[in-house]
Structure formats: C-alpha cells, structure tokens
Amino acid sequence: MSAPKYWREMAQRYRFEAAKCKKCGKVLFPPRLACPACKSREFENTRINDKGTIETYTIVRIPPSQFTDEAPYPVAIVNMGDNIRILCQVADCEPEELKIGMPVRLEFRKIQQEGKSGILAYGYKCVPE
Amino acid sequence: MVGIVGYGAYIPRNRIKVEEIAKVWGADAPSYKRGLQLREKSVPSPDQDTITMSVEATKNALKRAGIDPKDIGAVYIGSESHPYAVKPSGTVLAEAIGATPDCHCADYEFACKAGSEGMFVAMSLVKAGEMKYALGIGADTSQGAPGDALEYSASAGAAAFIFGKQNVLAECLYTHSWMTDTPDFWRREHQFYPSHGGRFTGEPAYFRTIMGCAKALLEKSKMKPEDFAYAVFHQPNGKFPMTVGKRIGFKTEQMEQGWLCPTLGNTYSGASPIGLTSILDVAKPGDLIFMVSYGSGAGSDGFIFKATDRLPGVQNRAVHTRAMLDSERRKYLDYGTYTKFRGKIKLRGE
Ligand SMILES: [Zn+2]
Asked: Is-contact B210 B292, C-beta < 8 A?
C-alpha cells in the first residue's frame, strides 16, 4: 500500500467515518460523491458503529504475498447496521469458531507492512465480541 | 481539582506459560515460578503493537471520560517498543481517536517509566491551564532474548489516562520524581534485545530508586502507608513489587488489586499504569491510591490519587482490567507459535 493512498483513506480506516445523505438519510461507507439512492451530493459526516454481526465469511488459505505469515486467516463480510457491510479480516478467532450471525466488534490492528522498511498500515479488523 | 477523568487498559488475549518457555531451554520451571512469582505472560498477536494497544486502551478511557476527543490538547505515549525508529506513535493514535490537528504530540522513552512520564507531563499541562485535557499512555510489547530471564516476563499491554479539571474520577494530590544515573538495563542502537546487569538490577537500581521516590512522596504528603486503600509499584516480576511495598510499610491487601504480574508478566511502560487501572476499577470514593513506577537507567515517578464520588458511576462503562486478564478467550501458545508471533524466526532473504 502506497503512503499517499493509505493517508487518503485514514478517516475510514482509523475512525470509520461515513457520509450521511442530507436528503434521504442513507449512510455511505466509504463515502461517495453522489448518493446512489437519491443522487444528492450533500452529505454530513458520521461514524459507523463499532459493533456488528458476521454475515458471511471465508478462510484464506492461499494468501497474497504480504499475508503469507498469517494464513490460514478468516475474512468476513460484517453487517454494521444502517445497511452497511464491510469486508475485513477476523482476528483473535480460530477458523472453527466462526459462525454466521456471530457478534463482533472492530478493533484497531496493524493491517499490513511494506516489507522491512516500508510504512506500517493500520486499520480495523473484527474480533469476537 | 486536577486528576484522571478517564482511564482504560488493553491486554492482548495470547498467553504463554513459564513451563512452555522453560522446557525449551532446559530450565527448571518451578524454581523460575517461585523465584519470579510469575506463572504466565501476555503475548501480542503479529498485528498488535504499542500503537494498536494504545488506541484500544484510549477508546476505553474515552468511554469512561465521555468527552469530545477534539478537546484533548496533548498525546504522550511512553514506550520502549515504539513500532517506528523514526516517526511518532502518537500521531497514529491521535488520528485514530480524532484528536488531530490541534494537539501537541511526543513519544516518550525511559525504559519502563516512559508511561508514568507521559502521565506526569499530561497532568502538569492541565494543571498549568495550558489545555482542557491531556492524554498519557504507557504501552509496550517488549522482548527478552531467547533463553534469558527476561524472556519469561517481557509481555504486552497498555494503559491510557485522560487528565482534566472537570468531572475528575481520581484527584492527583501529590507527585514526586526521583532519578539518578544507574546503568542497570540498556539497549544500544540496532540491537534487537536489551542487555541488563543481572543482580545489579535489584538492590542499587529497582529497590533504591522506588524507595527513594516513595519516601519523598510520603514526606511531601505527610501521609503514612496505612492511610492508603491501595498501592501499586512497577512489577518487572511478581516478587519485586511485593518486597518493595512491604519495605515501605504497605501490606499485601493494599497491593493485591494492582499486582497483575503473576499472570500478566512485565508490561514495561504499561506495568504500574495497568495496575492503576485495575485499582480504579474497584476503588470507592475517598480511597487513597499510592503509585510508584520505575524505569531502568534509572528513575521513578510517584503519584498520590484520591478517588472521587464520580468514579463508581463510570467503572462499568468499559471493560475491567482483570476481566481482560482473566478472560475466557485467553489463548495459550506453544513456544514455536510464540517465536513466530514475536518475529524471532529468521526467514529466507532476511
Ligand atoms: Zn440520498
């Protein structure tokens, strides 16, 4: 992950900042330029809840190169309420513990590191509640 | 009144038992357990470090403080395991909790006393009226060389304290700092593991420094050990804090609530601060709390806190420290997994 891309996404990666449509109230995470429901372009800043439930999951056994040390690791789609679903790694959880509908909470973790000398990228993973 | 308006801790869920380390090095586990009064220690996952644990501890502190993070005017993380050699840990933390951009930030280092240093400066800035709130954190994911006595104790955890003047949970009545140049423990640049002076780390370093600070703090406050409901000291192992506390005049019952080392290990900069969070979890209005940290090199920061009427109402707003320590979700690692988690295995191409 390049430093500029990482930096641009910090509000979402660090603080779960979302955009709430001023016209229809739809919450968008990550924020977009126009509301897909009503096409409005006016939003207010909000934050998504840090608690959700696992909607579905998979176990990654053949990982991309920067995650070799971590495989096998679970990745889940988590329902955060307000019609928001996020894709994230599940930490502190054995693959056999995973269940659809399992309550989880977002925790701040190191997401990846660029080799031995690049930046450390932080963000959220979900952990069993 | 100036004092703690929010506090919180974070302890990772992984543990390793003394027996598991001892069997690899042919050491005698029962004598280590007796000598160090230590049964197991916490271990961070590969995706956890001083920054991530500081963020989680601060989130717990914010739940108890109920303040707007934008009002935090300073962020100080004390650690000897800052993830970057050059680039502050505090910037990530401040960004993650939403305290940027109007905020002063510095990373502190002074072996195991770095956390209490951050607390002392944060408290002093609020007292001086420079800012509404300031945040001091002690966090570490320290390592001992494989087979060294330190490997049995070096563990991971964080504690965060927000200082302010309104809605105080524990008033800070007195502080005292005591330090000399005492080379008991050090790590030179580019060295992965620290070095220490063996038995020299005890009497002339740990005991002399903590006793010096504690006596000065008691004189300054005109208080006696029996005036306090609780006392907590730096805990590099289970034995030292109980020994030093008794020499000063405290009893086991005053020290047990903050004595986490037997199952937590030595969280370095987090040690006495995490002990303090465990005390604040149960303290009652009017209780006096005595705390003295210790950092090799060597120095101690001492604090006297008095719990206020507001404390019981916020204790359950975030997870209690002992609930994390004794969590049912604790995961016991074997030595192989532990060395992988701690990056002790040299990989091809390194
Ligand atoms: Zn809309």
From this structure: yes
Which DSSP category does B334 fall into? P
Domain that holds residue A110: 3-128
CB of B43 less than 8 A from some CB of A: no
Using CB atoms within 10 Å of the CB of residue B336, give its burial: 0 to 12 exposed, 13 to 18 middle, 19+ buried.
exposed
Bridge partners of A69? none
Q: Can you list the pairs that A28-37 forms with residues at least 24 positions away whose Cβ atoms lie under 8 Å?
A: A29/A80, A29/A84, A29/A86
Per-position DSSP letters for B131-187, written without gaps between them: -SEEEEEEEEE----TTSGGGGTB-EEEEEEEEESSS-SEEEEEEEEEEEEE-SEE-
Least confident of A62-76, B35-49, B112-126, B245-259: A62-76
Centroid of ligand 1 to alpha carbon of B30 (angstroms): 66
Contact B45 A108 (CB under 8 A): no
Q: How many whole angstroms from B315 Cα to the centroid of ligand 1? A: 40
CA of B343: which chain A residue's CA is closest? A69
Q: Running DSSP on this structure, what letter comes out for residue A115?
A: T
CATH of the domain at A102: 2.40.50.840
Q: What is the band of B120 on the pLDDT scale with cuts at 50, 70, 90?
A: very high
B206 and B244 in contact (C-beta within 8 Å)? yes
3-state secondary structure B62-90: HHHHCCCHHHEEEEEEECCCCCCCCCCCH
A110 vs chain B: nearest CA distance in angstroms?
Answer: 5
Give residue-wise pLDDT tens across range B13-68.
999 999 999 999 999 999 989 999 999 999 999 999 999 999 999 999 999 999 99
Of the two residues B181 and B190, the one the predictor is more confident about is: B181
Q: Taking CB atoms and an 8 Å limit, are B350 and A116 in contact across chains?
A: yes
**Nearest CB to A15: which of B56, B83, B96?**
B96
User: Considering only CA atoms, which of B208, B93, B106 is closest in space to residue B160?
Assistant: B93
> Which pTM value belongs to this model?
0.96
What ipTM score was computed for the predicted complex, to two decimals?
0.95
For the segment B188-222, what is each residue's pLDDT rounded down to a tens digit? 888 888 888 887 788 889 999 999 999 999 999 99
Instruction: Tell me the range of A1-10, A63-72, B45-54 where mean pLDDT is highest.
Output: B45-54
Q: Which two tokens stand for residue B250?
A: 């405290």
Among B107, B81, B109, B71, CA closest to B92? B107
Give chain B's domains with CATH numbers.
3-169+322-341 (3.40.47.10), 170-311 (3.40.47.10)
Q: How many domains does chain A have?
A: 1
Neighbour count for residue A96 (Cβ, 10 Å): 7
* Measured distance CA(B89)–CA(B107) in Å, rounded: 7
